[in-house]
Structures are given as C-alpha cells and as structure tokens.
Amino acid sequence: MSYRKAFIVSNALMLAAFVWAFAKDFNAEWRPYQKKYYQLAADALEKKGLKDEARRMRRSPVEIKQIIAGDLGRFDRCVTCHVGMDEYVNPTLKNDFAENPYKSHPKVDAALVKAHPFTKFGCTSCHSGQGLATSVDAAHGWVKHWEKPMLKGVHIQGSCVKCHGNFETLKGAEAAALGKKAFNRQGCQGCHMINGFGGTTSVPLDDIADKPFERIAGYNFKRVQIDGKELRDEHHDSHWNIQNWILGHLLNDPAEVTPNDPFAHLNAEPIPPSGMPDFRGEISRSEADAIVAYLSGMTKEEVVPYRYHVPAPPAREPRLSGTARGRYVFAKYGCQGCHGLDAKQGRRRFNAAGDGQKEYDDTLPEAEQFAQMNLGAEPTLPNLVGTYTHEELVKKIQNGVPAADAKKWSPKGPLPMVTMPSWKDKISKSELDDLAAWLLSIAKKDDSGF
Amino acid sequence: MSEITPNPAPNQAPVPSPKPAAKPAEMSRGDFLWAGWGMLAAFFAASAAAGARFMFPNVIYEPSQKFNAGQASSYDLGVSTKWLNEQRVWIVRTPSGFYAMWARCTHLGCTPNWWGDQNRFKCPCHGSNYTLDGDVIAGPAPMPLWRAKVELAPTGDLIVDKAVLENKPGKREDAPYFASYAAA
Amino acid sequence: MPALDLETIKKEIIDSQLWRSVFRGGVWKDTPRDRAGHIIGNVWLHLHPVKVRPRALEWAYTWGMGGISFALYLLLTLTGVALMFYYRPTIGLAYRDIKDLEFAVTLGMFLRNAHRWAAQAMVVAVIAHMVRVFLTGAYKKPREFNWGIGVLLLTLTLFLSFTGYLLPWDQLAIWAVTVGTNMAGATPILGNEGPLGSLVGMRINNDVRFTLLGGTMVGENTLLRFYVMHCVAVPLVVGILLILHFWRIRKDSFSAAPYSAAEEKIDVWPHLVKREYIAAAGTVLFIMIWSILQNAPLEAIANPNVTTNPSKAPWYFVGLQELLVYFDPWIAGVAMPGLIIVGLIAIPYIDTNPKGVGYYAWKERPFANALFMLGIVMWFALIYIGYALRGPNYAWYWPWESWYLPKAAPPPTWSVFGPEGVGAYSMLIGIPLLGALSAAWMLLPKLIQRELDGRKAMGGFLAAVAALAVAGVALGRMGAAEGGFLLFFLGASFYFGFVLPQRHIRTLDWPRYLVTMVLVVSTMSVLLKMCARLAFNIKYVLTIPSINMNI
C-alpha cells in the first residue's frame, strides 16, 4: 500500500473510530429507558385528555438526573432510568406502569416512604447499590469492585438499623427486629460482640456489613448453597457478597463452608474447621433472612449524621430473681450458643472426645475421621454441673477453660476452635450467683450410686 | 550535513532507496489526496465539537434549579421569605395565585431585603427599591426583578424552576410565571 | 459564468496575504529547494534534517518507536488536560470524580481509557525504542550523552505512570503507591527502614519517604503531591529533556549507516514525514480502538485497612515486585533500579567496540547484545511471573490452576550466614567469604589471558554441577526439581557471567572491565538468589540484623 493510500485510509479510520467512540458514548444504557418513560407518561396524559402536558412531557430533555443528598453523602442517579420516582418529572410519585424501571415507587403514601423523602435521602441510603452509576449492572452493584449491591427482599431492613436505634419497635423494620431476636435467642452474642456487648471468641459484628470481599474467604463460597443452589463462582454477579456469606453460615453447616485444614495438608499444624455451630434445625429460612437483615445494618463505614440518628430506648432488664434470673442470664450472654438452648444439649466441638464416637483409629479414611471429629461436643451442662459446688461453678465460669485442656479425639487432629472464655469482666457477681444456682437446679440427679 | 563513519554490514545488500524527488504528482487532486486531508479535517472538527460538548457538564453538584416549595395552601397572602436562605426566592401569594421572585437585584446582583412595613424590596448595595410586583421605584436598577417559573403540581405543591425567568409586565403575570390558585 | 477551477481557487488562497503571513515559502513546485524549505521553514518540522540516509526510512531499522513514543506523549498530554477538567485531587472527591468520568461525562470514559492505555503503550514503546537503539549501536560515539537522556526519559516515563496510578484513589492506587513509597523508605541511610537509616536518626516522620508522601502514610498530601508531579512537574522535565533529546539527534545526525559509500541521501519531506505521520496516525487509531473496546480498570475505593489479595503493581513494575519476593526492599527497590539506571547510562562509555553503529550486528557485538537482551528477557520474564503466575497471598499458581484452590503454606526459610545457618559470628565469615567470591568472579575472566574454548568450559562446568546435583539427590539433600534448578541457574550464570566475558571483554582496560563486571555479576546474582530461594528456601545469603542489612 502506498503512503498516499495509507494517509487516506488512516484518516478515514481515525474519523470512523472517533464517530464510533462518540456513538458508543451517546448510546448510553440509560437513554432509551428515559425516552421510553417520557413516551409512556405522555401517552398516559393524552388518555386523560391533558394534551398540553402530554406535549410537554414528550419534549422533556433527555439528561442524567441525580438526587443530591449531601448530608448522607449520596449522589444517586437512579432516577435517570427510574424516572417515575423523580419528583420533578412525576410530582405525584405515582403512575400506572407495572414494569421496571418505569413504575413508580411502591407505597409512596405509606408513612415509611413519606418519612424518607427521596430528595433528602436519595435512593442508596436505603436500597444500597451504586448511585453514581448510569448503567444497569453497575448501578445495581452487580459488578466487580462494588461491595454494596442493592439489598434484596427483607435485607433492606438493615438500612433501618443504621439510623434507628429503636428499630425493634419500628413499624416496617419487623424483619430486622426478628433477626435481632433470633440472633440473641441462638446465643450468637456469646461469641460475636456487637457494640461492646458479647463474647470475643469469634469476630465482632459491629461492622460486618462493611466486610470487604478481600476478607471473605472467596474460595469458600464454592461450598455455600442457598436454597439448594450453588452460588456462581464469580463475585461480580452480586452473589458473592456479605449478605450471602452470612446466609451461607446459617443455611449450611459452617464447618463445611470453612473446613480449613484439619488434617494438616497445607500447613504444618492442623487447623480445625469453623467453630460455629450448625444452626440449621433451629433457625427457619425466614429467620435466617431476618438475621441477615439485622446484620446488614452493622456498618461503621457509612457515617450517619447525628440528626438522622434515632437513639435506642434504654435497655430494660426483666425483674427476676433466683433461678429464673439465672436462666435469663444464661440466655442474655449467649451461653446457649455453645451449650444449647436452655443448656439442654451441648453443641458441636470439633475433635473433642465425646459420646457416640468410635475408638480413635488413624487408619480410618479421612472423611470418616472428619465425621467422628465432628461428633465432639461442648459439655451438656446438666450432666456435668452436678459434680461442682456453687463456688467451683462460679469460678469455672469466671475463669473459663484454656484450649489446651481439651481432650482430643484424634491426637493428631487440631485442638477445638472454640473454648470456654473467661466471663469475669462480663457477667456481674450477682448475675453469676443466680446463673450458678439455676445450673445446679437443672443438674441431673445422679442415680448411679455415686 | 551529518557525518557518519560508515560501518556497513558486510552481508547486507544495499536496498534500493525510495524513489527520490521525481514525484510532482504529489499534490495534484487527481489522486484523491484531498479526501485524506478532508477526512483529517473532519476528524479534527469532530474532535473539536466533542471537546466543546465535553466542556458542558452533564451533572452538576449544585442544588437543582427546580425545587419543591411545599404545599400552596401553607402560604399566607403576601411575601414569604421561607425559601430565601436555601433558594434565594421569595414566594409571593396574591389573592389569585402565586409567583416566585428571584431575590437578585437587577442592578448588580446583591440580595435585596423585604421590608414588609414599607411594602418594598430594598437593595442594600446601591439603594434600588422595588414594589411587591418587582417594579423599580427608586435607585439605579434598570429593570424589574425576575420572576421564576412556578407551577402548581397535582399534589398541591408549588414547583419553582429558577432556570426559567421573566420580568416583562404583561408576560410575567401569566403561566408559567404565575400559578393561579383560588382556594381559600 | 466560468467553471469552478480548483487550481485557481487554491492559487488564490495560497497567494493571499493571510496565507502568506502564516506559511512561509513561495509557490510549491516540489523542487528539492521547496522540500528543504518545507523542513527548515516550519517550526514543527525543523528539528528534522533536510535529508537522511535511506536506511533511516526503513521500518525494519527504526521500528518507528521513537516517533510513536512521542506521539503517545502528545496524546497523553491532550487526554490528560481534558481529564483535569473533571478531576479534583482530594480524598473525598477523587474517586467520585473518576466515577463521574465513567458514568456522567460526555466521552469521559473514552478519554480516561485512552489516557490509561496510551500510558501503558508508551511504556512499551519507550522500552522498544531503547532496545532498537541498543541493537543498532546508536548510543555509540558521538551519541553517548543522548542515550543517557533517553534512559532518564524512560525512568521518567515509568515515574509518570507511577504517579498517575494514585490519582483514581482506588485500591489499586493506594496499594501500588504504598508499596512503591515504602521502597523509598528502605533506601540505605536516607530511609527509616533502610540499612544504616536508624543510625543516622531516620524516623518515619523525617526520612525520604516522608518527603515523598508529605506524611507518614498515603493520604491527602500524597494525593496532591502526586497530582502536581504527574500533571505539572514531571511533564515539564520530560518536555525539556525531549527537546534536548531531539536536538541532539539533529546535531549528532541520525544513526542509520549508509548502505554504500556512494549513496545519496533522501529528502525528509515527504519521505520521512509521511512515515512519521502514518506511525502517529496508526498509534492514535490503535489507542482509540483499544479505548472503545476495553475499559480502564477501577477497583473499590481506597481503603487503608484492607489490601486486595493478591495486590499487584502495574504490570511494568510487577517485575520489580517479583524481585521484592527474593530481596530486601533496599536491594530490589532502591539498589537494583538505581544500578539499572546508572548501568544503562554507563553503557556507551564502557562499550568500546567501534563496530555495529547504525545497523543490526549480532555477530560483531555478541557480548553487548547478549548481555543486554538477557537483561530485557529477565525483566519481562519477571513481569510474566509476577503478572501471570502469582495468585492469592502472592503464592505461585500455574496458569492452569484455579485461584480458588488453597495453596500449601510456603516452607520456612533460612539464611546461610545467619542464625539458622552458620550461626554466631556468621558475618565475620560471611562478609570476607562473599567479598572474596565476588572479587574472584569479577577478576577471573580477565586474569585468564588465553581464550578458553567456550563449549568445553561450559560442558565441564555443567558436568560438575550435574555431578553435584546427582550427589545431592543421592544423599537425599535435594529433589530432582532442585537439581534441575541448580543446573539451569548455575549454568546460565556461568555462561553469561564467565564464558562470555572471558571470551569477549578480557582485553578491555581495567576500569571499563570492572564496571562491566559489576553489572554482569549483579545481574547474575539476581538469578542465583532466585535459585537459592525457589529451590533451597534460602532467605538471605548474609544477614546483619543490627544495621538492618540483609543480602
């Protein structure tokens, strides 16, 4: 090719490429949605006989719209496509369209929505997602590197928790309230601290909603099943997020989600699987979602200005005394997280020697050994506390039990992940006395002759 | 001219040099060179146009020129300074409806004050005085105060758009610079 | 009405006072004088000579890479200025502004892509230009100084890329810059973590890293500093050096050697200019299409508490990052880059071979070409390893392995002259021993006055290493893989570090010979240290913890 031809061709191609670039930029995803909305809205106005309004609607400028909620640091361009939720195009915030993104926000007359005007709160304050984005996947947060996708279903109630300290009595936040109830009922606070209350055996959950993907063990998502379905092994389709990570721990056996390295294949020392008990029998599917909703509000990254914050009502302790108070104390501090509801049945303690296990035999296949180690359990307290005096029991609870004291089923296997922590600084002496009294009251009466 | 100590590669045969000088056809128009220049010019023109478009921001971090001034029924007759701080607008209710006056002196842009006892807007900078309608009755201001577009939404809210302005008597009294509102 | 005559119109326009005032010269008749005048009379073109050697027009000779680098620099300036209209360098706004460019600014995404991709292309183009200049011996007298300027320009190109990396304020940005500036903190004497640094009172808030960051961590000041360096300070320096670079090419004349003694030179206008135009247009086109098809990456917003896993530098620094796995930061991050820059600048002054100027000469310059290409290949091999073979936790993952496969924890490492190795007083033995070994290595090739038979020497050496490896395997001290590593790395070091110097540079005068050998031996040390780590888990060859000095 001669340079002359190359000159002509290269210039033509540069022009063409530029036109291509501009066309691509101009044909942004949001544009057809907004145009279609004006059409639909104009048609609807015409049907009502409002010719002038219809004409004006049809001629509305096609532009990126955004709600600036500066107080909350939100710049939400959602209304660029969801035009029906733009107060200036659709002042009533109501329309008859059924399809997204054209339809209006549901329940705009409900007190809940009225109390959170869009122009003041934006969209992502409640719904999460990427407000700055103007393409479908990016805006809903279904892309790589956006950690906060739109909250689905009841999970959105986590957003209530961010500001409303009183969410437990709040209309519309029922799921979050139920989540907190279930969380405390199962004794999750025994290991997970929230806002200074709870044990330190596992990670605190004050800011669990901010947990970045880098800290979620990515490959373990492969073992998570939700409603019988595996999560796709890409995290940019929004399935690999903190909501599903929590849900995965409630709808699967956590020891299978995070098996770690109990046979020391990868490390010098064996590492036990997750010490979190398997709550599947005790938590319903909807409670699991409720817990996720509650925990979705546990954020420190999103700073809520004080005038948006509703304080929690002062905590009120029930007036109880004696063994009744002891039982309450047991549940309050989450002892049931390991020792079972009402201390009836100790939960799993991986590789602890326990009932119903075979004799240790290192020729057993690993899967069988794993199953045997899985049978190890925390003490079932009624069987145990009978041998203690009141003072001994109080002391034991105060001091806890070091991990090294555990009796292992497999001597080569790991020490159990979970041990009895020291409660000295957490449970007051009077509470402890009542707790010990209650425990002794439920101790199995020994009829074997000892 | 340059001095190169020649160290020719022994194995390389001299390549015939590209044809020198004899190409007078270079600039003739028979060979469509103009098409190349034309397309280059078009490319630059397109780039310049796109560059100009680039300088128009699609989003701005300012409060919207349009704002919702709340329920029409919540206003009393006369001048309301409710939105002065946030939006620099007076909402004026007359017996027949509403207009929204932009609180910007037409002289040099200061913000006049509303003196209810004298029924005047007075500018502190150079002493322009305006009537309730916005007409100049004293001072150097060259023209009446601007009124913004105001609409009564089906919800009963007043929607003000400061991007659309009018101050000519005869025009400013009609929609969209005046929202009829007869309710008691 | 007379017919519309284009020629007449053209003449009218060209003869008008306006046109004449803008463009100098008479009516274009395409005479040699016109062509010369076109170059001389135009401020943009006059850095060219009027005529050049035919070889200078050959794509196979020039690769067009110098011109393409410059075209990319101009493109980067244009797109960069455009981006500046929508970018504010503060922690609260930077990331949001990039999102705005992506989502809300007309052509914002395209311009950002173009800026990012052109920057990466420029790194490639500048390196390719350097390789071409080296292989054609174009740095030799009288162009030594211009080669040095070129090396500085390459360094500044990388520095521009590095400073630009911080500006989006995403995870990639903050961690690349955190690692990069911590290397500055490992500078000997001047850095608080470098050897001897603590002895002269360097702390986290008064060392060279502190100055670079404007703080003790990557923060608001850092962003502003990098912004100013990226947009104003460094481009200014690059611009000045570019002028010098071009001016010296003009004054020293272009390197291409004549094909024959009697050859005639060729007019630059139009023959060179049209080639330059096509190269530039092709470059612009390439960047445009790349920018349309592929978006520049933008990770999550910078979070000083969370490091991405794996966290990798931009690809052109991944080679350095891979070196950081084997060496202490003061070596891999400061000494080695410094040595590379100084070594490159020194090349024209130590290469006394008069042959091979202005044409490709593999046979006439075997030593220079082999060593230089080894360096380039090593650089890109390290980049490949760091970029493609490192997965989560920076563990080694083969391309066919899933990153979701958990990897075994790396084995514990040990140091030869250190507590786990030789034990107490190790440095009293280690320093003299290592010093003697390096000295012997450096001197030996020149001390052997007779040229050895390369094939025999190589064969003998490999046989000895193989015997050693077999003995090691037999004694159970190493596996077959370790033996293979030993054979490969020792063999390569022996060939490039002994056989080649012994054959080709033993006649060099002592100062030049020694400088050359310092460069050769340090290059080989990189290979040997990699072997020591990969095959034998050796962390340091010598460690002196008291002054933070580890090798």
What brief labels describe this structure?
heterotrimer, A: 450 residues, mainly alpha, Cytochrome Bc1 Complex, Chain D, domain 2, two-stranded antiparallel sheet, two-stranded antiparallel ribbon, 18 helices, 4 strands, globular, C: 551 residues, Cytochrome Bc1 Complex, Chain C, 19 helices
Query: How large is the share of residues in beta strands of chain A?
Result: under 5%
Please list the strands of the largest sheet of chain C in the order they lie side by side: 1-2
Mean pLDDT of chain C: 90
Q: How much β-strand is present in the residues of chain C? A: under 5%
Which percent bin holds the helix content of chain A? 25-40%
What CATH first level of the largest domain in chain C would be assigned?
Answer: Mainly Alpha
Query: So, CATH architecture of the largest domain in chain A?
Result: Orthogonal Bundle
Fold and architecture overview:
- The complex is a heterotrimer of chains A (450), B (184) and C (551).
- Chain A is mainly alpha-helical and 450 residues long.
- Chain A contains 18 helices and 4 strands.
- Chain A has helices at 3-26, 30-47, 51-58, 111-114, 118-121, 124-127, 136-139, 158-163, 174-185, 242-251, 254-257, 285-296, 322-332, 336-339, 366-374, 381-384, 390-399, 429-442, and strands at residues 67-69, 74-76, 225-226, 229-230.
- In chain A, the strands form 2 sheets. In chain A, strands 1-2 form a two-stranded antiparallel sheet. In chain A, strands 3-4 form a two-stranded antiparallel ribbon.
- In chain A, a hairpin with a 2-residue loop joins strand 3 (225-226) and strand 4 (229-230).
- Chain A is globular, with a radius of gyration of 29 Å.
- Chain A starts with a helix and ends in an 8-residue tail after the last helix.
- Chain B has a domain at 66-180: Rieske Iron-sulfur Protein (3-layer Sandwich), CATH 2.102.10.10.
- In chain B, 14% of the residues lie in helices and 27% in strands.
- Chain B contains 2 helices and 11 strands; from the N terminus they run H-E-E-H-E-E-E-E-E-E-E-E-E.
- Chain B has helices at 33-54, 84-87, and strands at 66-71, 78-80, 89-94, 97-102, 113-115, 120-122, 129-130, 136-138, 147-152, 157-166, 179-180.
- Chain B is elongated.
- In chain B, 24% of the residues are buried.
- Mean pLDDT of chain B is 83; it is low at 1-29.
- By secondary structure, chain C is mainly alpha-helical.
- Chain C has 2 domains: 60-295 and 311-388, Up-down Bundle (Cytochrome Bc1 Complex, Chain C), CATH 1.20.810; 411-550, no CATH class.
- Chain C has helices spanning 6-15, 17-22, 32-40, 59-62, 65-84, 94-103, 108-135, 144-166, 171-185, 208-213, 220-252, 268-293, 315-326, 329-350, 366-388, 426-447, 454-474, 480-504, 510-536, and strands at 51-52, 266-267, 543-544, 549-550.
- In chain C, a hairpin with a 4-residue loop joins strand 3 and strand 4 (549-550).
- In chain C, helix 5 crosses helix 12 (268-293), helix 13 (315-326) packs across helix 14 (329-350) and helix 16 packs across helix 18 (480-504).
